[in-house]
């Protein structure tokens, strides 16, 4: 299975309101929040411009790291 396997995006996440984001955000959720393509998010993760952590087979981004990236 691909490390960037598709997981459904929670529709309660408001991209403009970090208080609605989960603590650990999936790659598809990061793409939705940043309004970027999955391939662009993958490049950010692989180049380590955006920090992530592996949970089993999935990569997740901590809310604080995503906020730091966007500021």
Describe the structure in your own words.
With 71 residues, the chain is an alpha+beta fold. It has a domain at 22-70: Arc Repressor Mutant, subunit A, CATH 1.10.10. Helix content is 35%, strand content 15%. It is built from three helices and three strands; from the N terminus they run E-H-H-E-E-H. The protein has helices spanning 27-34, 38-46, 63-70; strands spanning 24-26, 53-55, 58-62. It has a three-stranded antiparallel sheet. Strand 2 and strand 3 (58-62) form a beta hairpin. Helix 1 packs across helix 2. The radius of gyration is 11 Å and the shape is globular. 23% of the residues are buried. The mean pLDDT is 89.
Topology, please?
Blueprint lengths: L23 E3 H8 L3 H9 L6 E3 L2 E5 H8 L1
Antiparallel strand pairs: 1-3, 2-3
Helix pairs in contact: 1-2
């Amino acid at each position: 299975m691909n490390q960037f396997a598709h997981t459904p995006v929670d529709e309660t996440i408001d991209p403009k309101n970090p208080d609605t984001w989960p603590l650990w955000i999936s790659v598809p959720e990061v793409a939705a929040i940043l309004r970027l393509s999955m391939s662009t998010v993958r490049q950010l993760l692989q180049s380590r411009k955006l920090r992530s952590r592996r949970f089993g087979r999935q990569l997740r981004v901590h809310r604080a790291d995503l906020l730091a990236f966007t500021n």
